[in-house]
Amino acid sequence: MPRHTPHSLDFLPIFDSERLAFFHYTCNSPSYEVLADYEVEPMGKRFGCADSREILVIPLQLYLNKGFAFSADQDVQKLNLEILLKRLSLEKK
Question: Which of 14, 29, 49, 57 has its CA at a distance of 20 to 30 angstroms from the CA of residue 77?
Answer without folding.
Answer: 49
